[in-house]
Amino acid sequence: MIATTAIIYPNVKLGHNVIIEDYCLIGIPFAGYSGEDTIIGDNALIRSHTVVYAGNKIGVHFETGNQANIREFNIIGNHVSVGTLSVIEHHITIEDEVRIHSQAFVPEYTTLAKRCWIGPNVVLTNAKYPQSPNVKNQLKGVYVGENVKIGANATILPNIRIEKNALIGAGSVVTKNVDANSIVVGNPAAFIRMIHY
């Protein structure tokens, strides 16, 4: 079902049983757009006022909250959820079963590995020196490993790697890489203990 108030641009390919609610914009051309397809897999639920730019490849069972914004050239896997008012910039890889809560910010060149969980108001960054000369050519996104959980209001600095199963405490500021199976908390985030499975 596609709401009559939604706008679906040319070169959008929708799977079966896709629901697109009121006032969504799907497949918006961007600067330099040259006809790239936008693909959204089966059983997607795209809630009202969501914006999806052209050139995205999105798997099955994709879901957004209201007013999510997804820029161009992202690869998004199956069973991914992007919460209300979250912003997904361009050239991002989001693997299967990732959950991004409300009002999160995910910048260019970030990778979110399988089943990671991004809490509300989390900010990932990619510019070490914002507005410096040539900054656009020096952007380095965050790598978030499998099953990582990042608590609400955490901030992750550019080019940080958070390895699998790690837990980032709410409100933490992560300034260095985080080892697998570890818990870090605070500003700057410090190691607390290992997680034992």
Describe what you observe in this structure.
Helices cover 0% and strands 32% of the residues. It is built from no helices and 27 strands. The chain has strands at 7-8, 12-14, 19-20, 25-28, 38-40, 45-46, 51-53, 57-58, 63-64, 69-70, 75-76, 81-82, 87-88, 93-94, 99-100, 105-106, 111-112, 117-118, 123-124, 143-144, 149-150, 155-156, 161-162, 167-168, 173-174, 182-185, 190-194. A hairpin with a 4-residue loop joins β26 (182-185) and β27 (190-194). It is globular. The model has no long low-confidence stretch (mean pLDDT 96).
Sketch the topology as an H/E string, one letter per element: EEEEEEEEEEEEEEEEEEEEEEEEEEE
Fraction of residues in helix: under 10%
Biggest sheet, open or closed, and with what strands and sense?
Answer: 10 strands, mixed
Low-confidence stretches: none
Describe the protein's topology.
Elements: E1 7-8, E2 12-14, E3 19-20, E4 25-28, E5 38-40, E6 45-46, E7 51-53, E8 57-58, E9 63-64, E10 69-70, E11 75-76, E12 81-82, E13 87-88, E14 93-94, E15 99-100, E16 105-106, E17 111-112, E18 117-118, E19 123-124, E20 143-144, E21 149-150, E22 155-156, E23 161-162, E24 167-168, E25 173-174, E26 182-185, E27 190-194
Parallel strand pairs: 1-4, 2-5, 3-6, 4-7, 5-8, 6-9, 7-10, 8-11, 9-12, 10-13, 11-14, 12-15, 13-16, 14-17, 15-18, 17-20, 18-21, 19-22, 20-23, 21-24, 22-25, 24-26
Antiparallel strand pairs: 26-27
